Amino acid sequence: MKLVTRDTDYAIRALCYIAKRKKSIVSVKKLVRDLKIPRPFLRKILQRMNKSGLLKSYKGKGGGFELSRAAGAIFVADVMKIFQGPLKCNEHIFKKSLCPHIRTCALKGKLDMIQKHIVSDLKSISIGSLIKKGK
Description:
The chain contains 6 helices and 4 strands. It is mostly helical.
C-alpha cells in the first residue's frame, strides 16, 4: 500500500513553497528550479490544484501561482483527495475483486479503526503547520 503518491508529494511540496512566499505570485520556472520537479509533472499538478480551488493562477509576464486561501486552511487530506481520491487503506481487494470473506474477516475491524485514525490525523495537518515545522 502506498499512502502518498508522487503527485501528492509534489503538490504538498509546491504548496509549502508557495505558502512560504506569503502573498507573492510564484512562477512555474522558480518552482521547477527550486523544487527540482520536472516541469510537465509540475504544470499538470498546479493546474489541477488551481481547478480544485487550492491555488489561483495568473497569466502573462509576472504570472504564476499563489494560494487561494490561508496555508492553515489547506489540509493534507484535501490534497490527497484531489490526487488520490478517497483514502482507503482497509480495502480487501485481491486480484482486482473484493475479498469474498469481507463480512467475516477478523482483521477488517482493526483496519477500519486504523483508517479512521489515519484520516483524522491527515485532516489535522495543514500546509501552515508543515511550513512552521520546516523553519
